[in-house]
Amino acid sequence: MLIKIQPKSALKTSDITDESVYLQRRQLVKSMGFLGASALIGSAIPKTANAGFFDSKDTDITNFKTTPLTFATDTDNLSLIKTPEQKVISHNNFYEFGAQKHQPAELAQNFKVNPWQLTISGECDNPITLDYDDLTTMFSLEERIYRLRCVEAWSMVIPWIGFSLARLLNKVAPNSSAKYVVFETLHDPKQMPGQDDRRLGGGIAYPYVEALRIDEAMNPLTLMSVGLYGKTLPPQNGAPIRLVVPWKYGFKSIKSIVRIKLVSTKPETTWQKLAPSEYGFYANVNPNHDHPRWSQASERRITSGGLFARNRIETLPFNGYGEQVAHMYKEMDLSKNY
Ligand SMILES: Nc1nc2c(c(=O)[nH]1)N[C@H]1C(S)=C(S)[C@@H](COP(=O)(O)O)O[C@H]1N2
Ligand SMILES: [Mo]
């Protein structure tokens, strides 16, 4: 069978990132099979028609206004190929605004992030409440270019802006009973329609709750993010402040946080409580421990929005951050503590 391939000139230059002509060539070989199949059907498949083959369509931010931030540039991770901003802000998991990838960008545009209050309390000497302006002014901001690996086996590279959670925790002075840190997302069904519509919200319990062990929370990689791509966060990515824990599956990186509490005993968290055999408390990225319903050995790196958007790569233990974090789990059986 003759397979027609688009000439190279038909590719937009934005489709050809530095990422590697190599990866794209490999992908091209795979895509040929697919193009062949669609040629057989005799019609082009629209991008939105088949979520199995293509990402959801990119959504332009319409109403929500982001603001440029001042920050120290991440010069250590420049070799990582960033996921295009348009993908980062249009392919989201934020069930409060709908469980489909395109819904948060569409349904969160009128989300009110100012005024905002974030309370940090519990087992500490100096509990505090931060207002909206404090979030971007209390600490000097840094860019951190991190890989984000979703438990669903897709991944991105995102230039976050924020500050280490450790700096914030040091400010409240945890006491010796502080063994875990619990985070809670805003609960406001009027603004977050998924919170009282089980179908839209994917049937999970709200408010969304996540937690870390205190040493994980104090690890320098653990970031409180207030921005991405040089600007304040869009609501679909967790405005005005969210957690980013790059060596753990994405669901640990809780969005739009209003409460942080230091506690003495291990708390229950949203996904772990819902399906404990599928989602553990630790949720460290681990290619050797499969999800009961799919393999975690590889992932689809979302790069450009073009034909070559689906690059299959190997998943790394601790998402490639083992050097900085593996020591925290030395004594643990990671197949039991998944
Ligand atoms: N409150 C809240 N936080 C959340 C989620 C969510 O549904 N609600 N989804 C998580 C999951 S599964 C992932 S992969 C990341 C996605 O972050 P992103 O949309 O900024 O890429 O957010 C995490 N934080
Ligand atoms: Mo995820």
Describe this entry's structure for a reader.
The protein has one domain (13-329): Sulfite Oxidase, Chain A, domain 2, CATH 3.90.420.10. It starts with 20 loop residues before the first helix and ends in a 13-residue tail after the last helix. Strands 3, 4, 7, 8, 9, 11 and 12 form a seven-stranded mixed beta sheet that branches. It has eight helices and twelve strands. It is globular. It has 338 residues and is of the alpha+beta class. Bound molecules: the ligand Nc1nc2c(c(=O)[nH]1)N[C@H]1C(S)=C(S)[C@@H](COP(=O)(O)O)O[C@H]1N2 and molybdenum atom. Residues 92-96, 148, 150, 185, 208, 237-238, 250-251, 253-256 line the site of ligand MTE.
The gist of it:
With 338 residues, this protein is α+β, with helices and mostly antiparallel strands.
What key phrases describe this protein's structure?
338 residues, alpha+beta, Sulfite Oxidase, Chain A, domain 2, 7-stranded mixed sheet, 5-stranded mixed sheet, disordered N terminus, binds ligand MTE, binds molybdenum atom
Topology, element by element:
Elements: H1 21-41, H2 85-88, H3 103-107, E1 117-122, E2 128-131, H4 132-137, E3 142-149, E4 154-164, H5 165-172, E5 180-185, E6 209-213, H6 214-218, E7 223-228, E8 231-232, E9 242-244, E10 257-263, H7 270-274, E11 298-302, E12 310-314, H8 322-325
Parallel strand pairs: 1-10, 4-11
Antiparallel strand pairs: 1-2, 3-4, 4-7, 5-6, 5-10, 7-8, 7-9, 11-12
Bound molecules: ligand MTE and molybdenum atom.
Beta-strand residue percentage: 15-25%
Mean pLDDT: 85
Helix tally equals 8
CATH homologous superfamily assignment:
Oxidoreductase, molybdopterin-binding domain
The CATH level-2 architecture is identified as: Alpha-Beta Complex
Low-confidence spans: pLDDT under 50, at least 5 residues? 1-55
Terminal-residue CA separation? 47 Å
Ligand identities:
ligand MTE, molybdenum atom
Specify the structural class.
alpha+beta
CATH class: Alpha Beta
Shape: globular
- How does the major sheet shape up? 7 strands, mixed
How many separate structural domains? 1
Q: What integer value in Å does the Rg equal? A: 21 Å
Order of helices and strands: HHHEEHEEHEEHEEEEHEEH
Task: Estimate the helix proportion, in percent.
Answer: 10-25%
β-strand number: 12
CATH topology call:
Sulfite Oxidase, Chain A, domain 2
